[in-house]
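A favour between colleagues. Tell me how you read the following sequence-structure pair.

===
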Amino acid sequence: MLLSVLLQAVADAGLATLGAALGAALAAIGAGIGIGKIGSSAMEGIARQPEAAGDIRINMIISAALIEGAALFAIVVCGFIL
């Protein structure tokens, strides 16, 4: 029963396009929220320990790059569905 419903949903091109667009939007929103939280936490950490600003900044940039990579990968996969 579930398999037939999924196969019918995939066969409908409009629903697949909607799913791909929704997936790309969620990936972009998730990346934005994640990078925002990283920036916020980094600024709080630098405010608490200014002497560790260099280490915190490096870790923040690496984490933001990893999140951007994952979001870009998700958006590319959603683009392939289109």
Observations:
- The mean pLDDT is 87.
- Helices lie at 2-11, 13-48, 53-81.
- The chain has three helices and no strands.
- The radius of gyration is 19 Å.
